Amino acid sequence: MARHSVRGASLERRLSASGAQVFTTIVTPQEAFEGWFTLINRQSAGREQIRAYAQFQHCITLLMKLTILPFDGEAAEHFHRLQSERVRIGTMDLKIAAICLAHDATLLTRNLVDFEKVPGLRAENWLD
Description:
Strands 1-2 form a two-stranded parallel ribbon. Strands 3-4 form a two-stranded parallel sheet. The two termini are 15 Å apart. It contains 6 helices and 4 strands; from the N terminus they run H-E-H-H-E-H-H-E-H-E. The mean pLDDT is 91. 16% of the residues are buried. The chain has one domain (6-124): Rossmann fold, CATH 3.40.50. The longest helix has 16 residues, at 27-42. By secondary structure, the protein is mainly α.
């Protein structure tokens, strides 16, 4: 969570006040790690990678504090059903939606435009 931003502080207060359980999906670490690997690999090996590795390690530390929901059989069934219904959002977002549906969870996202296309998914924006 972005503790140093106004939005991050506001989100923390709202989560605390609501008593909501906080979790992420396995898709989030996948996307974050892919981004960090790309950044790290663009740098020359050695000193130029120090900052990127430090930021990547910080990302890992933050993710380790969260419950990570899996993309399991039930989520895969939701994913394939949504695909067959031709829900038109990105594959990774569709996986996130499927995981939330499998766990009967409300998705907190700023991307309501896409996630509102998913039938039965509860999605809310607590940042804006």
